[in-house]
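In the lab's daily routine, each protein ends up as an entry in a very long ledger. A line of letters takes care of the sequence, but it says nothing directly about the fold. The fold becomes a row of whole numbers, each drawn from a learned catalogue of backbone shapes. The protein below has been through that process, and both of its lines are reproduced in full:
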Amino acid sequence: MSVEINGKKVFVKDNVLYLGNMHIGAISEIMGLEKLVDLKALILFNNKITTISGLHSLLKLEKLNLYGNEITTITGLEYLTHLKTLYLSENAITEIQGLDTLNNLETLSFEDNQIQKIKGLYHLKNLVYLNLFGNSIRTIEGLESLNKLKKLRIGNNPISHEIFKKCGDLDEQGYALSPQKFVKYCHPI
């Protein structure tokens, strides 16, 4: 199976479609994507994509990499219920939303966006890894349902050192030393 992008044919290998660094401006430019119903991974990093759309036929997709694009709003993912890994780092996202149906998600990365508040994660009860490094988050909230969380990267945000201390602190790379302390911090007393 193959798709066509910018007049060039790109083949699917082992149910993975690799389209990183191809100057793609919109997912709709990928001719034949809707026919790849067995696709497991779609790699679209470092393009110029502004909107997530046209993925509704990829019902078996388990990994979606949209790292380094120009996405501002999370939409168009509601049918990807088998998704386990979602990379949305280095975009221009300001709000975590549109993830409610992604119950199987285990890895989620929002590094270097413009997110100000942790929310929209309530239904992601299988989340094991969450990356929120380098955003504009000021407080720890919205993590209360993430009981399986094992890795949390939340450094390089304007959160007070006192809050980090209460949650068990961070290592030098911005990872929580005890992610479940951050989860517990969000539980109402």
